[in-house]
Specification:
This protein is 80% helix and 0% strand. With 232 residues, the protein is mostly helical.
């Protein structure tokens, strides 16, 4: 193996173990932006996904197709839309959110929202027929039947939230477009990796890459654990 790579890897590990100040700042901002985005998205997506999952009509099927389409929304498209909305000439330019963490959060909400909505809707649909009908047969109201379905689908809904987090935490295109990768203000792990690699600062880039991989491993482990409990 190339000696230069080993040296860079060793220096990257030392940065992590030394808990480098800049490294901590970048990781902390990444977790804040992605965590806030997923929380906001979940607050809207879970009720919407539940509502759509409990309904069975032609217009719901059309909306479902739109949601499934947006589940694969390219990050650069989300970034472009948010940029146009928040730019000085845009309808929300007066808020002056462009080049701030809040612009990055909005962009990530756009990416996480359809994923959590779609997966929640699928989870509710899979439980609705059996659980909902049983609850209604036993004398429950429609509201009580809906709550029973949500309780049964809770593991899958949690999985949807975790999947949404996995989608946004490793995203680079949208946050770069609306955040600007400003040091100490909007620089997150993915954008910092791109910048440090271009600068030739491979130690910092590798250290951030390692932390990002560890976070991805943790997220996927949680998701697999939840799915295992669901299957059980």
């Amino acid at each position: 193996m190339n000696e230069g790579f080993l040296n860079n890897l060793w220096n990257a590990l030392q940065l992590i173990l030394a808990w480098d100040t800049e490294l901590v700042r970048i990781v902390g901002l990444s977790l804040f932006v992605s965590g806030a985005a997923v929380l906001i998205a979940a607050l809207f997506a879970i009720p919407l996904g539940t509502f759509l999952g409990l309904k069975n009509s032609k217009w719901v099927r059309y909306i479902s197709k739109i949601i499934y389409t947006f589940m694969g929304l390219p990050p650069v498209v989300a970034g472009l839309v948010v940029f146009l909305l928040l730019s000085k000439s845009g309808p929300l330019g007066i808020l002056e959110l462009l080049w701030t963490p809040w612009a990055m959060i909005i962009a990530q909400v756009m990416l996480a929202l359809p994923i959590i909505t779609g997966l929640t809707m699928t989870a509710i649909k899979s439980k609705d027929q059996a659980i909902g009908k049983t609850a209604l047969t036993l004398g429950a109201s429609k509201y009580q039947a809906a709550l029973a379905v949500i309780r049964e689908a809770r593991i899958a809904i949690i999985s949807a939230i975790v999947a949404g987090l996995g989608r946004v935490i490793a995203e680079v295109g949208a946050v770069m477009m609306v955040g600007g990768n400003i040091q100490g203000k909007t620089r997150v792990m993915t954008t910092a990796i791109v910048l440090e690699t271009r600068k030739g600062n491979f130690e910092m880039a590798l250290s951030l890459g390692i932390i990002l991989l560890v976070l991805a491993f943790i997220i996927n482990s949680i998701l697999m654990t939840i799915q295992g409990e669901k299957d059980y």
